[in-house]
Amino acid sequence: MKFTKPPLSIDAQIHKLRSRGLVIKNDEFARSCLSRFSYYRLSGYWWSFQSDKINHLFKPNSKFETVVNLYYFDSELRALLFDAIEKIEISLRCKLTYHVSQEFDAWWFEDPNNFMDVSEHTNSLRLIGKELSRTKEDFIKKHKLKYFSDTRMPPSWKTLEVVSMGTLSRLYGNLKLSCKSKNHIANSFSLPNHTYLHSWFQSISLIRNICAHHGRLWNKRLTDPPKLPPKPKEAWIKKMPKGREYHSLYIRLCCIKYLLNTTIPSNNFTYRLYSLLKKYPNIDIRALGMPEGWYNEPLWNHKLDT
Questions:
Q1: Cα–Cα distances in Å, from 256 out to 4, 46, 218, 249, 305?
Q2: CA–CA distance from 261 to each of 84, 108, 186 (Å)?
Q3: What is the largest CA-CA distance in the chain?
Q4: pLDDT tens per residue, range 9-34
């Protein structure tokens, strides 16, 4: 089957949405939004407003302005999460570099003897090599100029500064069980062992990538749910997610908050998230997997942020 739909002008897009039952009060506003965000990007936000998803017919009183409002909320949510994840990522980068280098040496990440799956390690090295070749960081360029006869990559405290969070997580998860630093790093984040931390970082890496590529978080089913400890050392949630809730954003928000609490106890993530939801009171938090009164959970009440 071939794709035969032709590209539509902005006015034709507005006409199509109206014909399907979406209320558009201001054509100029609609033109402005569709020319800035695109019809296809906004379609992810009006999907839940459709009663007939085969013929793309909207529920009664579905409004274009509501869809755009939802888009703005999601954009601000991504910015909030990207900022929070950055702090966690820097902490992991620091701990991984320091502790494993102390246990082995500055080039532990190059040595296949330190890893369980050699083929995965080879793939990680390939990705690291690509990052090093395209980075514009002066400290990498200067290292290569000064130590041009050294065929090794720069030491871990330089090399791991330019690799992605996903690669960091894979390196950590692939370290041999005999590596003492593996559980030590997990314990420093108040998690029982390395299996939980690796799972959490894999899950959070997905969120980071969505944020970095301006993808949709609202009402999205997510893969790779994090492994949840039965008895966390620090404040956690009492109401555990069930079924589809494991694939929602909320449980990942909980993991981010938990890691922030162990990394930056004075963080204001609860306040910022609560303020964002208050700014957009018509947002259905159930689409994020969030329960009513989520902010009363021990995790979110942690030294209630102000």
A1: 43, 28, 17, 11, 15
A2: 11, 29, 14
A3: 70
A4: 999 999 999 999 999 999 999 999 99
**Could you give phi then psi for residue 264, rounded to 5 degrees?**
-130, 85
| Res 305: pLDDT | 47
Give the whole-angstrom CA distance, residue 34 versus residue 40: 9
d(CA 22, CA 34): 14
Amino acid at 166: G
- What 175-183 contacts at long range (C-beta under 8 Å, 24+ apart), as own/partner pairs, is 175/100, 175/114, 175/115, 175/116, 176/114, 176/115, 176/116, 177/116, 179/100, 179/103, 179/114, 180/103, 181/96, 181/99, 181/100, 181/102, 181/103
For the record, the structure tokens of 69 come out as 């409002």
What stretches of the chain adopt beta strand conformation (E)? 50-52, 57-58
Whether 235 contacts 261, CB under 8 Å? yes
pLDDT at 302: 56
Question: Cα–Cα distance between 49 and 56 in angstroms, integer?
Answer: 9
| Residues in the chain, overall count | 306
Which pLDDT score, from 0 to 100, does residue 306 have?
A: 46
Nearest to 274 by CA among 296, 259, 246, 256: 296
Quote the Cα angle for 270-273-274, to 5°: 80
C-alpha span between 288 and 284 (Å, rounded): 8
* Closest C-alpha among 186, 38, 206, 170 to residue 99: 186
pLDDT per residue as tens digits for the range 84-107: 999 999 999 999 999 999 999 999
Six token digits for residue 266: 């004075």
Alpha helices in 38-179 (DSSP H): 39-46, 64-103, 118-134, 138-146, 156-159, 165-174
- What is the Cα–Cα distance from 165 to 89, expressed in whole angstroms? 6
pLDDT confidence of residue 243: 77
How many CB atoms lie under 10 A from the CB of residue 305? 19
